[in-house]
Amino acid sequence: MRASAAGERRWRGLSQIWVLLVLALIVQQVQFWRAPQLDTDVMALLPGEAQDPLLALASEQIAASATRQLVSLVGADDWARARAAAERYVAVIDAADSDLRRVQLQPEALQQALNFYRGSRVAHQRAAGGACRR
Q: Which of 29, 43, 71, 89 has the smallest count of CB within 10 Å of its CB?
């Protein structure tokens, strides 16, 4: 009988701990979903710029120019079809009565930004002792 009573007390204690854990999880989830603080800043994914003031300035300028912009990607099996689809998409956007406006990027601007951050990535990998892949 004593083993049975001890086993019953043990299970009762474990069930009470389980109930407390479930209640704690419920409280945590209610607090999380009341004020979700998800970071939607894509620029936060770029490498840290604490040691490099030039990198910090470039990140600020890119972030400032990228705010409130919509990027649409159009693809197809070949370049001609992708280009035609992009032109149709632009025509629809231009004809729509909205606040959207098209911005034509210079091809060199993207390549310059990629080269800048590629160099930063290589420097970070070398500092960490990792191999660099290009």
A: 71
Pairwise CA distance, residues 10 & 3, whole Å = 10
pLDDT at 81 (0 to 100)? 92
Q: What share of the chain is helix, strand, coil (3-state, %, to 5)?
A: 65, 0, 35
Distance CA 129, CA 134 (A): 16
Residues 67 and 30 in one domain: no
**In a shared domain, residues 60 and 104:** yes
Residues of the chain with pLDDT under 50: 132, 134
Check if the beta carbon of residue 47 is closer than 8 Å to that of residue 117.
Answer: yes
For residues 9 and 70, state if they share a domain. Answer: no
CB 101 within 8 A of CB 36: no
